[in-house]
Design brief:
This protein has 3 helices and 12 strands; from the N terminus they run αββαβββββαβββββ. By secondary structure, the chain is of the alpha+beta class. The protein has a single domain, classed as tt1808, chain A (Alpha-Beta Complex).
């Protein structure tokens, strides 16, 4: 009597899935609560991210950081994010390894029709659980910007907003700058 081999022995499904996601060439793919989703930003989405990126660029350089959209891992969870913008210390961004939310100074997500609820609810909760100090939500569908801070295991305990586009939004230390949201 023969039995079928157990190919699942010793394989960590979370690690295997995250490994596979990292090796999809030329594709921005995320895992959101265990669901694989391609990140396909529209031009309007990219324009909104660029408006934020340009305004924080000088301060990011002064802080010895970089801003980009590299991989963010949430260990022991079925999540692998590619934020629209993350600000991280330059010394942490020197290799191909993903970073953790608590290694960021700021995470920015810009909503699209296809992902607005994910950015508003799921990512906000998960970024807080994993210690991202500041989460800026640019909600294109609502025409507003909200800055979340003071992360905890149940979410962010402080929210500044939502502010309608056109309002100045203050990014606290270490940034200490005001974002002009009129171009979003």
């Amino acid at each position: 009597m023969s039995t079928a081999p157990d190919y699942g022995k010793g394989i960590d499904p979370e690690r295997a899935l995250k490994y596979a996601i990292q090796h999809i060439e030329g594709d921005r793919t995320e895992i959101i609560e265990g669901v694989i989703r391609p990140a396909v930003p529209t031009w309007g989405h990219e324009r909104a991210a660029k408006v934020v990126r340009r305004q924080i660029a000088d301060r990011v350089d002064q802080l010895g950081c970089i801003e980009g959209s590299g991989n963010i891992d949430l260990p022991d969870s079925p999540n692998w994010y590619i934020p629209d913008i993350a600000v991280v210390p330059e010394e942490l961004a020197k290799d191909d390894e993903p970073l953790l939310p608590d290694q960021t100074l700021l995470v920015v997500e810009v909503t699209s029709k296809s992902n607005a609820e994910t950015d508003r609810v799921v990512k906000r909760k998960r970024y807080a659980e994993y210690g991202a100090p500041l989460y800026l939500l640019v909600d294109r569908q609502e025409g507003s910007v909200t800055l979340f801070s003071e992360p905890g295991h149940l979410g962010y305990t402080k929210a500044d907003g939502p502010h309608p586009f056109g309002t100045s939004v203050h990014l606290p230390a270490p940034f200490g700058i005001d974002l002009d949201t009129s171009g979003l």
